Amino acid sequence: MTLLSVPDMSCGHCKASVEAALAPLPGMAPVEVDLTKRQVTVAGPASEAVKALDAIGFPAREVA
């Protein structure tokens, strides 16, 4: 599992957008979004998830 920090994610609409961007990507499911911590957990590689989130305006980084 890969944990990402998505600091600009702040509301339910943001959460839905993040889920919609990541869920269709091969190997990402399950996508778990923690809005309170502003973190996302995915099964796939961080690089692909970060690229997808950057494309929709949510800069992300992998949490070590």
Automatic annotation (TrEMBL):
PROSITE patterns: HMA_1, HMA_2. Residues 1-64 form the HMA domain. GO terms for molecular function: metal ion binding. Pfam families: HMA. CDD domains: HMA. SUPFAM superfamilies: HMA, heavy metal-associated domain (SSF55008). InterPro entries: Heavy-metal-associated_CS, HMA_dom, HMA_dom_sf. Keywords: Metal-binding. Signal peptide: none annotated. This is Heavy-metal-associated domain-containing protein.
